[in-house]
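Late entry, pyridoxal-5'-phosphate complex.
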Amino acid sequence: MVYANGAFVPEGDAKVSVYDRCYLYGDGIFEGVAVWQSAPFRLDAHLDRMFAGLQFLQIGNPLARSEWHGRIAELIRRNEMDDGYLRIQISRGEGMSSIKWEPRLLRKAEPNVFIIPVPGFASYYGALHQRKQEEGYRATMMSRPRIASAAIPSSMKHCNYLNSVIGAMQVTASKCDIGIATDTDGFVTEGIAYNVFIVRNGRVLTPPTTRDILPGITREVIIEIARKAGREVAEADFDAYTLMTADEVFICSTLEIAVPIVEIDGRKIGDGRPGPVTKEISRLLYEEMSREARAYASRRAAE
Ligand SMILES: Cc1ncc(COP(=O)(O)O)c(C=O)c1O
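Prediction complete; structure with ligand written out below:
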């Protein structure tokens, strides 16, 4: 079942108009929220990022925070989701009279709002699910830089992902699993849909949010839990050479959780196997997700 503009409908009935602004211009905001043990993980942080993007694009937020919570809880319940991914998709509305965006010029001035569930991380990834934790991913460096924040603010999870799609084509052509991008100054930014961490001499480093990256919720949680576990974590600029000669590299996102990178453009990272810090952080992340899921369940039971 999909949440579509106020109703819960079978996925075949969840449709948008050809005049949808997101379809015509990529004029919208999206979010991806992890579901773990039937609880949405860090939902408020995802909503904060989404609300900021909507505010910047001057798209009216269609629901109050408590209503978002309610709709998402209901969608998890209706789909009997244990784990998986929820994709929230909000477009400005409908109209194609030109790029003009003002509500009075649109055919439909209210946003089109969908929440699309993808139940089951394991079934989504199939055989890759097990392999990525045990063996890690092979990466390639993207030949194109990320879109500069000066052009489109990277802090927004906006619906213009062609830079990532073109990156994904390069990943396929190079027979790798993932792609990592720099900016035009040569500093590492992020992957095509995930943030990047390295481990050097016991220190955990990740590019700062000023490097054209999406400030990932998983990235934020990893910084928090690694520090709590006594690790030194810093947001720091580093180039592709520093990345490729790191002791460990891993990527993270709502969909991927945390995955070791064992090779970049043919160069082994460390000994070419998932490293101990990455494994520890991945374990801490799952523990945090389970802890929050228990807290979520007891809050809902008390309601
Ligand atoms: C470009 C990009 N960077 C980073 C991330 C990771 O963000 P999060 O941890 O909030 O899923 C994503 C998630 O889809 C992304 O698209």
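Residues 269 and 284 are 22 Å apart (CA to CA). Will revisit in the morning.
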